[in-house]
UniProtKB/TrEMBL annotation, chain A:
Entry keyword annotation includes Ligase: no
Keyword Cell membrane (UniProt): yes
Protein keywords: Cell membrane, Membrane, Transmembrane, Transmembrane helix, Transport
Membrane topology designation: Multi-pass membrane protein
Any one Gene Ontology BP term: transmembrane transport
Species name: Natronorubrum sulfidifaciens JCM 14089
TM stretches of this protein: 27-48, 87-108, 120-142, 171-192, 227-250, 275-298
Main location: membrane
Subcellular location: Cell membrane
Assigned GO CC terms: plasma membrane
Domain ABC transmembrane type-1: 83-294
Family membership noted in the UniProt record: Belongs to the binding-protein-dependent transport system permease family.
Domain of life: Archaea
UniProt name for this protein: Sugar ABC transporter permease
TrEMBL record, chain B:
Protein name: Sugar ABC transporter permease
Coiled coil: none
Alphabetical list of Pfam families matching this protein: BPD_transp_1
Keywords: Membrane, Transmembrane, Transmembrane helix, Transport
Membrane topology: Multi-pass membrane protein
Any single GO CC term annotated in Swiss-Prot or TrEMBL for this entry: plasma membrane
Highest taxon, organism lineage: Archaea
Matching SUPFAM superfamilies: MetI-like
Record organism: Natronorubrum sulfidifaciens JCM 14089
Transmembrane listed as a keyword: yes
Transmembrane region(s): 23-41, 79-105, 117-136, 156-179, 200-221, 258-279
């Protein structure tokens, strides 16, 4: 069929491709126009706003451009603290979620009974809004909440803390709760990866007398590379924009120990009306996301996955 | 043959060891179930406790003494209008972005022309973009269009259109990966018979797409229902608040009353929890692309 079609293409002076292009336009053009306007148009507009110095009431002045917004970043302690926290959150949250998710996947993949029930429970937090989970976890971390009462009940009362009040623990508390919410997602990604490893790989290793540990190190973990890459991209990009959870838990001004760029951006623009500065912080966030998405999209394209 | 016999003797030797391992495995799985459900459990017990029981009992204890449903009544009456707003937004938003996604993926997958991969890269990248990068222009854009001045419900319409636009990339990518697995011979044959692209979509592709519509609709429903950021930026009139926004307001105004907060959180989460329990399989599919 393909060869037939190709020969038709060759015979036809107006190639089949070109007429397909015109005929297919009504299908993809409206949505593509919306995406170009709302996503790419808006990103470009945001970059322009970040150069205007716009603040307060009124409209941006598009005749005067300045780099001032970017220049003030390094000397803004709030911005620098947010940047540090964002990176810390990104690294710790992604790393721990992957490890926990892999652990869950390996446990669930041992031909257990009620597998789908276990899977459903571990993935459940992913179905909840961050507003909902932030409220649950505010109560978990409260002075008389489940975590502190359980610690006291186990005779570990000295470990009890004001988790959300103490600057030393705030960020860790947020990361712990987000790992709870996302590790189920890592589990299903890894499960799909585990199930695509051909059975004879295990058999061959078993016959060679490989121990379980070697089996994991040599066969299973390397085969999970593409699952790891995919999940890492999703987790890292999420970590950059983890706004809702922190905003609902701590409000617009969460303090320097847990402030992240996404929150700083919102506060500068929508609370302080420092629109241009907020836009500039958003550009930084976007650039960070691009360094993650860019290589990923490129390799997907190279592998022909698109 | 020889290997079989050694296997069997090994089996009897280590049977009790295997048994123990099995018990440890299920023990670990159940402990994890406890850990994963604990935030919901402590929320649920607290939502049924009177203020006195809340102060005097641990969140681990079920609400046997001091049982009350008052927190649910209070939270429910606070959130009712916002639940209605959320449904009014989420249904058109999910349906339209799924439909756009299907049409677009069809136009970019089953018809070939140069440059379609470029368009797809734009869509793939759009899935991952941090929305902070569009918030300020988005607010400028909608204030220029001014739907909120035309009608008191205008803001809600703005929010719905915004969700449709930002939902299209992921829906397209989901449909695209599915359409790639469809048999193209059928479509090629119909093409050679002179069927138009629209007719092929209606007669062949759309009926085959129903399982994928379930996946994308569930994905979008959960996404849009749970959204907080766009609503926070676009809605200013309290009567237009969607449930996530109203729940946050409720939690702020009842900061010391955890019972009402927990009941409210469960009420706001109920639609997504129900969808998740009924369509867990489709939900998981949407998450893994």
């Amino acid at each position: 069929m393909d060869s037939l079609r190709n020969s038709i293409k060759r015979l036809n002076p107006l190639s089949a491709s070109d007429s397909d292009f015109l005929e297919s336009m009504p299908f993809w053009l409206p949505a593509t126009a919306l995406v170009l306007l709302f996503v790419y148009g808006a990103i470009g507009w945001n970059v322009i706003i970040s150069f205007t110095g716009w603040s307060g009431l009124g409209q941006p002045d598009y005749t005067n451009f300045t780099l001032e917004m970017y220049r003030q970043m390094p000397s803004d302690p709030d911005f620098m603290a947010s940047l540090r926290n964002t990176i810390a959150l990104l690294v710790a949250f992604t790393g721990v979620s992957l490890v926990v998710g892999l652990g869950l996947a390996l446990l669930v993949d041992r031909k257990i009974r009620f597998e789908s029930t276990f899977r459903t429970i571990y993935l459940l937090p992913m179905a909840l809004s961050f507003v909902v989970t932030a409220i649950f976890w505010s109560w978990m971390y409260a002075s008389n909440g489940l975590i502190n009462t359980t610690l006291s009940g186990l005779g570990l009362g000295w470990l009890a803390h004001d988790w959300l009040g103490d600057p030393r623990f705030k960020l860790a508390a947020v990361i712990f709760a987000l790992v709870w919410q996302f590790s189920g997602y890592c589990m299903i990604v890894y499960l799909a990866g585990l199930r695509s490893i051909p059975n004879d790989h295990y058999e061959a290793a078993r016959i060679d007398g490989a121990s379980t540990l070697t089996l994991y190190r040599r066969i299973i973990i390397p085969q999970l590379r593409s699952s790891t890459v995919g999940a890492t991209v999703v987790l890292m990009v999420f970590a950059l924009k983890a706004f809702d959870f922190i905003y609902v838990m701590f409000g617009t001004n969460p303090g320097r120990s847990v402030d992240i760029l996404a929150v700083t951006m919102y506060r500068e623009a929508f609370s302080s009306s420092e629109w241009a500065y907020g836009a500039a912080i958003a550009v930084v966030l976007f650039a960070l996301a691009l360094t993650i998405i860019g290589p990923y999209a490129y390799t997907q394209y190279k592998r022909g996955a698109l | 043959m020889a290997t079989t016999t050694t296997d069997e003797s090994e089996h009897t030797e280590t049977e009790s060891g295997l048994e123990l391992r099995r018990i440890a495995l299920y023990g670990a799985l159940l402990a994890l179930v406890g850990a994963y459900l604990s935030p919901l459990y402590s929320g649920l017990t607290t939502a049924f406790k009177t203020q006195e029981a809340y102060r005097n009992t641990s969140p681990l204890q079920p609400p046997l003494e001091g049982f009350t449903i008052d927190p649910w009544v209070t939270a429910g009456s606070e959130l009712a209008f916002a639940m209605v707003n959320s449904f009014a937004m989420v249904i058109p938003a999910a349906v339209l972005s799924a439909l756009f996604g299907s049409l677009t993926a069809y136009g970019l997958t089953k018809v070939d022309w140069r440059g379609q991969v470029f368009v797809l890269v734009l869509f793939l990248a759009a899935v991952f973009i941090p929305y902070q990068a569009v918030l300020v222009p988005l607010r400028q854009f909608w204030s220029m269009i001014g739907l909120s001045q035309l009608h008191p419900r205008g803001e809600l319409v703005e929010l719905t259109i915004t969700h449709i636009a930002y939902g299209i990339p992921i829906c397209t990518i989901l449909f695209r990966s599915y359409y790639q697995t469809l048999d193209s011979e059928l479509i090629e044959a119909a093409r050679l018979d002179g069927a138009s692209l629209a007719r092929i979509y209606r007669k062949i592709v759309l009926p085959l797409s129903l399982p994928m519509f379930a996946v994308t609709l569930i994905y979008q429903f959960t996404q849009v229902w749970n959204d907080f950021l766009f609503a926070l930026v676009l809605l200013s009139n309290r009567s237009n608040y969607v449930v996530t926004l109203e729940l946050n307001a409720l939690a702020g105004s009842m900061a010391t009353d955890y019972s009402v907060q927990m009941a409210g959180a469960f009420i706001a989460a109920l639609p997504t929890i129900l969808v998740y329990i009924l369509f867990g399989e489709q939900f998981a599919k949407g998450q893994t692309l």
